[in-house]
Amino acid sequence: MEPRNVLIIEDDPDVLNTLIDLVSQLPGWQAHGANTAHEARALLEARQWGAILTDEVLPDGSGLELLHEAAPRQPHAARALMSAHAVFQQLVEGLNMHLVDRFFPKPFDPAAIEAWLADAAKRSAKLPPSSDYGRIPLRPGDAWARVA
Length: 148
Description:
Layout: E1 4-9, H1 13-24, E2 29-34, H2 37-46, E3 51-55, E4 57-58, E5 61-62, H3 63-73, E6 78-83, H4 88-96, E7 102-105, H5 110-125, E8 135-137, E9 144-146
Parallel strand pairs: 1-2, 1-3, 3-6, 6-7
Antiparallel strand pairs: 4-5, 8-9
């Protein structure tokens, strides 16, 4: 089985490297990093992602904006937001728009990120055949709906 790709967007190089190292040790996952929203946009276009983990506060944009842009192109990717700042409004907006699966406060708990990726792997194993790519369930148990 080919590894699932995780895109990690974080402007702090030490935190980014820590997350890449953490994910790289998990079986079945391959980590890729970006320091800016601009870099992330290019990577989001380049391949399908099994998971996207982004800092909310980036030097050239917001993580929530990136997740909003990524959702139609990456409908099956697990999406998580992390921040050291109080981002309550952004988190609620992301949850209400079904853009964020999880929120990780910084400093993050490595076990929580591992559990999130394990859950993402289980969910991706249950995906419909590839002919249904571009479709997402509205809510768990709902029929599939086409993403515009």
